[in-house]
Write a structure and sequence with these properties.
single chain; four-stranded antiparallel β-sheet; alpha/beta; 2 domains
Length: 575
């Protein structure tokens, strides 16, 4: 991960992308504040005129005060609207970058961070940033302009009273130094726990059928309640410090007002100040209280936002482990030859999954990869698609290292049917055509026929326009797998990887699918990764893995005669 920049500076960088809108907000805040600052001055003049017995101008001063108040209200409305406009624009940019970055990251990133944590970061954390940007550009900046304008106005009335007001600034600084570290620590814990709550919720909803089947809902309820209780306590602890901060700041402001009354009263009685001056200073003191309170408010908000931002920027700063080389090219796969040359690979950097794996698949050959669980079969698919890169050795396609291909180009030319089938909440037609959005209806139907699913789709009331539930829950496991096969075939790839593609269909359907695909497989390189050995008589060659190495190769009949690992696996399944 890149060394993180200062969080506050990074947020400002996003705001400055829309500097024209920021200038507009600043201008509106400035005008609104100046109008507000003039009202005590007009009040001061009015009182002075009353004290002098000049009552004929009071109506004019009243009209001015009403006019300035209305003008300030209208401009304040515009300021708040454009502040929200700016905040939404900033978050629009961040959301787009987060979403794009998530899709750029390697598989390994998603092994480290739960889906629920990612959802929390991309939604609630980003929303926390939006609130902070709006508060910063509208409330805080406006309050600081008001504060500065009020101080200037106060200096024109009485320097000594103004200096007394400024002596309270160090007190506010000390309060901030005490409360902020505690709030930041608690908010960091709370955001992490919130992500865990989201992850638990997502996991329990996704696996609700399994939970009910195993009658273990209570276990997840207890797990959720434990996380929810932690979040509850952490937010209450944060609220305790936050609640203590506000009264403390308010007390400080009240003491400031008291000093103004006391010292200003002495000066008034001595004739150094007029009654209008002391009233104006009192009003300005009130105008200082809100900005001073906003300092505490924005500091708390910043702590929440900085914690959220650090979690969001962790995503944006993450570098994909599988990177495209500067000289990578769009290389067409013409023959489809695949070879692994002394490939070593480990997911965690400690335990080797593949240990010097070497084998070759000839163009147009259908090869099965079999072996015990954990022997590295699925890892072969991951490496060929460049979901990961090997630590040693190389993988070649048509004699070219796969790292020389542009990643998108490589993956568009290799069709893969994953072991874990995922369908989108969309029509069956669109689910099949995801790999080739521009595919015609004829191409969609042809792919469905090859995967032995066309007849079923045609029997549905809405046919290919039938909507599929989330993750394909309205379909059976076998139906989902056949749609996934169709999705891979419609890309018309030169190389096809079938990662246990028929694990959820019965033997008769499995045979029908392979019979339908036999013609399609001609002139294409096919790698079938499977635990089921019932259809291996249909492949040209079988490669047997054990502990990350090739231990046997040959046809079904040849390997049975050898009596090695393959023969043991086959007998254990059918005897």
């Amino acid at each position: 991960m890149k060394k993180a920049k200062n969080i506050g500076r990074r947020i400002i960088e996003y705001i400055l992308r829309r500097w024209k809108l920021l200038l507009l907000v600043l201008a509106l805040n400035t005008v609104s504040s100046i109008l507000g600052v003039y009202i005590p001055y007009i009040t001061r003049w009015a009182i002075d005129e009353i004290e002098a017995g000049k009552l004929d101008v009071l109506q004019l001063y009243a009209i001015l005060i009403v006019g300035f108040t209305i003008g300030q209200g209208l401009i304040s409305f515009a300021s708040r609207y454009y502040s929200e406009y700016l905040a939404q624009g900033v978050i629009y940019d961040i959301r787009n970058e987060v979403y794009r970055k998530i899709h750029e990251l390697s598989y390994s990133f998603f092994q480290r961070i739960d889906v629920g944590q990612l959802i929390a970061r991309a939604t609630s954390d980003v929303e926390q940033l939006r609130r902070f940007v709006r508060q910063l550009t509208s409330g805080f900046i406006g309050s600081m302009i008001t504060f500065a304008s009020a101080i200037i106005a106060m200096f024109t009335i009485n320097v000594e009273l103004t200096l007394i007001s400024l002596t309270f600034t160090p007190i506010i600084y000390l309060l901030v130094r005490y409360f902020v570290p505690k709030l930041r620590r608690l908010y960091m814990l709370a955001r992490q726990t919130y992500g865990e709550i989201t992850a638990t919720t997502q996991e329990s909803i996704t696996g609700v059928k399994i939970l009910k089947a195993l009658a273990v809902e209570h276990h997840f309820n207890e797990k959720f309640q434990e996380k929810n209780w932690s979040y509850y306590r952490q937010m209450l602890d944060a609220a305790k410090y936050r609640a203590a901060l506000w009264p403390t700041l308010s007390l400080t402001s009240s003491i400031l007002t008291l000093f103004i009354y006391w010292y200003g009263g002495i000066k008034t009685m001595a004739g150094a100040l007029k009654i209008g001056d002391i009233v104006a200073m009192t009003l300005y003191t009130g105008m200082l209280i809100w900005p001073l309170t906003w300092i505490g408010f924005i500091i708390v908000s910043y702590q929440m936002a900085s914690v959220a931002a650090s979690r969001v920027f962790e995503i944006l700063d993450s570098e994909p482990e599988v990177k495209e080389l500067p000289d990578a090219r769009d290389i067409p796969i013409r023959k489809g030859e695949v070879s692994f040359e002394d490939v070593w690979f480990s997911y965690d950097g400690e335990k080797w999954v593949l240990k010097g794996l070497t084998f070759k698949v000839k163009p147009g050959e259908t090869v099965a990869i079999v072996g015990p669980t954990g022997s590295g079969k699925t890892t072969i698919a991951h490496l060929l698609m460049r979901f990961y890169d090997p630590q040693r050795g190389r993988i070649m396609v048509d004699g070219v290292d796969v790292r020389k291909f542009k990643i998108e180009s490589l993956r568009k030319q290799i069709g893969i049917v994953h072991q874990d089938i995922f369908l989108f909440s969309d029509s069956i037609r669109n689910n099949i055509a995801y790999g080739k959005p521009e595919a015609s209806m004829d191409e969609v139907v042809e792919a469905a026929k090859l995967s032995y699913i066309h007849r079923f789709i045609s029997s549905l009331p809405d046919g290919y326009e039938t909507m599929v539930g989330e993750r394909g829950i309205t379909l059976s496991g076998g139906q989902r797998q056949r749609i996934a096969i169709a999705r891979a075939l419609i890309m018309n790839p030169k190389i096809i990887i079938m990662d246990d593609p028929t694990s959820n269909v019965d033997a008769e359907t499995e045979k029908a699918i392979y019979d339908a695909l036999t013609k399609y497989f001609r002139n294409r390189t096919v790698i079938v990764i499977t635990q089921r050995l019932s259809t291996l008589k249909l492949v040209d060659r079988i490669i047997v893995l054990d502990e990350g190495r090739v231990v046997e190769e040959g046809t079904h009949e040849e390997l049975l005669k050898k009596g090695g690992l393959y023969a043991k696996l086959y007998k254990s399944m059918f005897m």
